[in-house]
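Appendix B. One record, verbatim.
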Amino acid sequence: METAINDIKIFNSAGNSLMEAVKRLAFADSLRSVANIVKSAARNIAGAHGATFVLLDRGEENRCFYYDEDAISPLWKGMKFPVESCISGWSMLRREQVAIPDIYKDERIPHDAYQPTFVKSLVMTPVRREEPIAAIGTYWSDEHESTAEELSLLQTLADITAVALEKIQWQQQAQSSKTELEKQQITSSTLNQFRKDLLAHLTHDLRTSAIGLAKLCEHLGRDKCDTAKTDITDALHSSTHQMLQTLSKIIDLDQHVAQDSLYVSTVCLDELLLETCINFKRIAEASNISCTISGDTTEPLTVEANEDWLRTLFSNLVSNAITFTPAFGKITIALAQQEGYAVIKIADTGSGIPEELQKDLFKRFWLGDRGKQYYVGRGFGLYTCKRIVEAHNGTIDFVSSSSSGTTFTIKLPLKASI
């Protein structure tokens, strides 16, 4: 009778320890707090001399990580063992609770690892039975036969621990997603404001310069007696008109990129490239640079595109070529057809782009600093070119060297035949 009463008292005490652990695990907010609760609760529930909380470490090799412990003397806290070589691994791999009354009579136990410890018997309980992620070990310094009630309470503790760990994982994922979303919103807002500020700055400064040049052209154009001066005036008129058009196109491009929309029509590339060559021919000749165009097609090549954007694309590339080609150099514009694509090559005999700068050439707002003999820019022109090409489902690339100059190659999908 007395034994039965003692058993009831022990069971009630174990049950109270389990209930207290359940309450605390409901508010646990980290792996560390879960481990602190579980190691003490397991020891109290089982009346053990020690308890460990073991994690399954699925790294390059599956290992058992003895994360924390509560024991009368040190066990294996902080150590890792291959899952095949320890009883906690055996329990987790087989999804099975195991009780061993005498570890030195069980071949599953690595006796050398246990000899320095007080352990004589143990129970190992997997956490999350369907796919274990951890295990709870309880240990005694003498031979111990665990009761069915004791094993049941330990398994219940393990099941509640699994729920607590999953709750923490969900909370961390939710917090991570929220933090990432907030970062994206801040970044998007900052970049959008930066884009607006930069665009306003660019358009203001360029428009002021263009208007000044236009007024100068009007003044020079009043005297038509000097033929050479008339040619220069006409070239200035053309350049300032092109500058003002480019400003409008930059704004238009920015708006379309932001709205992810694009107005297109049928554009004849032969005509557009010829127009570009004619517009820049006099400017090139003024610097003793030849500008020629050639075609390797039997019929005109057409694409579905925004004509103004393509005009900006070709004008930017030809203008760059003139700027960075020395006197008596050559600029060639070539058009060909290749496997459903129009291939446009704009080549110059300039000094080329240093290899260390080439990887950054199309980056937005990137600034080179190598002197006028190289493509320096202000980080907007070539970036704009790349965005225009990509908006038309095309590609743009280049090759460059100090000995042969630079060649930009644009590929645009041809208009499908009806």
